[in-house]
Amino acid sequence: MQKAQTLPVVDVRSPGEFLQGHIPGAVNIPLFSNDERAQVGTTYKQVSQEEALLQGLELVGPKMADFVRASKILAPKKEILVHCWRGGMRSGSFGWLLETAGMKVSTLVGGYKAFRKEALTGFETPRQVVVLGGKTGSGKTEILHQLRELGEQVIDLEGLAHHKGSSYGAIGQLPQPSTEHFENRVFAQWRQLDPSRRVWIEDESRTVGRCLIPEKIWEQMQNAPLILVDMEKSVRIERLVREYACFDINLLYEATDRIQKRLGGQHHKAAIAALDQKDFATVADLTLTYYDKAYQHGVGQRKVIHVEETSEDNPGKMAERLVLGLTVNH
C-alpha cells in the first residue's frame, strides 16, 4: 500500500471480480475474461488442475504481447505492482511475464484477499471522530469540503458512496459502487488519518443509498460527539431547489413516489401536484416535513455537544464557525 502511493497497481483478476471490489487506484488488466475464468474453474473442478493449467495457457498465450504493451504504458519507468485474488498463479505468471519483458515487478503477498482483511481490521482502529449533523438541506457536505480546505481531516461518506442519502440522493450522481468497494474506498482514506487529530464525518443512516457503512466505523460514529447545524427551513428549501430542480423532472417524480408511504397519502398527492406545476419549493417543503421528523427522531439520545444556528447558506463561513466553536468551547 505504501508503494501504491507512487507506483501503478495492476489487478489481473477478471472484470467481474474487479467490479465487485478492488484496491482504489488499481487498473484492471484481466488475465481471463469472466467467461474464460468460469471455463478454467470448471475444468479445474471436473477434470484436473493440470488440464486447467493447459487450458489457461491456451487462453492467455495470444494475449501476452498485449499484456506487456498495456503494462509498459501504465509504468513508463518500468516498475509496477501486480496482484490477483490470493497472490497465487495469476499474479505470479503475470509478474514473470513482465519481468521477462524487462520490468521490475512486486506482487502482493496474499493478494486482494489480504488487502480486504487488512481493510476490515483497519476499521477497528479508533479515531477522534466528530459527527456533523443537521436536517436535510443544511449543506453538510459542502461544509465538510470547506472544513477540509481549512486543514481539517474529513471522510466524505456520501462522496465515496456516490449518493446523498435521501430518496433523491442518487440524482445527478455516478453509479454507486458495491458495498465491498465502498469499504475499500473508505479504508484508503481511513488508514491515512492522523490518530492524534479529529476527523469530521457527516451524520448518516447505516446505509448511504445501497452502500453499508462499515460496522466498526458506524459504532464510532454512534458514540462520537455530534455537532448540529441548525439552519432555517426556508433557507434549506432554497438550497434543495437549487440542487434538484435542474434535473429531469421524471427523476423527481420517481424519488417522491418512493417515499409515498412515509409522506402519507395527502402530502404525497400534494407533492406530486406541486411537481406538475413545477413548484419545486412546495415539493421541498412537503418532503422536509417527513425528513425533519425522521432526523429529529434519529438524533434521539445522541451526544449533542454543540448547536450552530444560522439563517444564511454560507458553507465556508459555517466551517470557520464550527472550528472556532469547537476550539473555544471544547
Keywords summarizing the entry:
330 residues; alpha/beta; Oxidized Rhodanese, domain 1; Rossmann fold; five-stranded parallel β-sheet
3D architecture notes:
The protein is an alpha/beta fold. It is 53% helix and 14% strand. It is built from 16 helices and eleven strands. α7 (140-149) crosses α16 (315-329), α11 crosses α15 (280-299) and α12 (249-258) runs antiparallel to α14 (265-276). The model has no long low-confidence stretch (mean pLDDT 93).
Strand ordering within the main sheet: 6-7-5-10-11
Q: Which consecutive residue ranges, at least 5 long each, have pLDDT under 50?
A: none
Average residue-wise pLDDT? 93
Question: What would you call the structural class?
Answer: alpha/beta
Estimated radius of gyration: 24 Å
Q: Share of helix among residues?
A: 40-55%
The CATH topology name of the largest domain reads Rossmann fold
Shape: elongated
Q: Specify the CATH class of the largest domain.
A: Alpha Beta
Instruction: Report the strand count.
Output: 11
The separation of the N and C termini measures: 35 Å
The proportion of strand residues reads 5-15%
Summarize the biggest pleated sheet. 5 strands, parallel
Give the oligomeric state of the chains in this entry, treating copies of one chain as homo and distinct chains as hetero.
single chain
Order of helices and strands: EHEHHHEHEHEHEHHEEEHEHHHHHEH
